[in-house]
Amino acid sequence: MRTLLRILISLMFLVIMAPITLAEEPSEPILIPPSSPAQVTVSGIQETRATVSWSPVPTATQYTVWVNGQRGGGSAYPAAEIDGLEAYAEYTIYVTAANDAGESGYSPSVSFTTLPPTPITPNKPEVYEVTDTKAVIEWQPLPGWQFIESYRIYVDGKAVADVDPMEGIQSVELTNLDAGIHCVAISGINENKEGPTSRPTQFTIQAIPSPTGLVIANRSHDRVLVAWDVIPGVDRYAVQVDEIPVGETKDNSFVIAGLTGETNYQIGVFAVLSDGNESARAKLDIQTPPQAAGMTLDAVMANTYDYIPDVVPGIIIIFVIGGAMKIARAGKLAIGRQFVFRRY
User: Does the pLDDT value for residue 290 go beyond 60?
Assistant: First the structure.
């Protein structure tokens, strides 16, 4: 019994003394920099800002967005908004992750282009060459930094066409217009959005009779005088030669100069109202006469010398007759004097 008691006491002592070494705390794990972020994407692209997002890195406590090689904004979350960008400019970005042990390498890069600025308001368009169904509108182009992709044409408040930009003054012909008063306006469109519309321009579509009684009142080898009947209510008349404008007049006649002799031309005349509305063109085909031979000194002398052989006999006869008449007068005068002398 005593022997068993001694064994139990020994075991209890060993149990009590053994936990002293087992209760020690474990050592802390070694911290290393995080891995590089992946799956970088860009969304919400505007004129001067964009949103960047990426997949989270487990050991990262901070992220940095790099813009064109320059350190940009930071974020504790796997997304960030970058602003202060230029409109319609290209950017390349990548992301790094960091913790207390250091910073990761660069993520794969992503490139994007910001949107162009919202188009400004175009100038008020002008209307030309109005007929009974058509009209031509013109307007100044928007600046190049607007990056305009097309212009939208509005007639009476409704969009009727999108036209591509062209060099210089922008122009488009409106067709199939109904008679009456119309309004036209313009807006610019780029990759960003459509800008505001211009101030509207009003014009009238109405039928105007074309000039009648078109005739050539006078002509020479290099110019013609054309005339036509007066049309009431017309502001002016436009004149063309072979469909090329040569002038305008408020009278019902016009002198066309600078023509060439023995040449065929087509004369065109149409009436124009004060708002630019034009009639159909009246046409007349003509041919200029040949140029008259010029009178020069050489030509006169040559013609004179050609007639000298025929003139000489006449000259001799004239001199003979004239001499005879002079002799007869002299004889008559002498006889008359003698008669008077003898009488006294």
Answer: yes
Helix (H, G, I), strand (E, B) or coil at 89: coil
Residue 103 — very low, low, confident or very high, per pLDDT cuts 50/70/90? very high
What is the CATH code of the structural domain delimited by 126-205? 2.60.40.10
Give me the mean pLDDT over the 192-218 stretch. Answer: 92
Q: What is the per-residue pLDDT for 129? A: 84
* Cα 263-268-274 angle, rounded to 5 deg: 150
Asked if 41-113 and 215-287 have one fold, the answer is yes
Position 315 pLDDT exceeds 80: no
Cβ 130 vs Cβ 274: under 8 Å: no
In what order do the strands lie in the sheet containing 126-128? Answer: 126-128, 135-139, 170-174
**Of all helices (H) and strands (E), which one includes residue 201?**
strand 201-205
215-287 topology per CATH: Immunoglobulin-like (2.60.40)
Q: Is the pLDDT of residue 310 over 70?
A: no
Select from 182, 78, 60, 167 the least CA-distant residue to 133: 182
Number of continuous H segments (helices) and E segments (strands) in the chain: 3, 22
Q: What burial class does residue 80 get, using C-beta atoms within 10 Å of its C-beta: 0-12 exposed, 13-18 middle, 19+ buried?
A: buried
Q: Across residues 238-242, what is the average pLDDT? A: 95
CA 193 centroid distance within chain? 21
> What is the fold of 41-113?
Immunoglobulin-like (2.60.40)
Mean pLDDT in residue range 2-9: 62
Domain boundaries, the chain: 41-113, 126-205, 215-287, 300-329
Q: How far is C-alpha 293 from the chain's CA centre?
A: 49
Give the torsion through C-alpha atoms of 333, 334, 339, 344, to 10 deg.
100
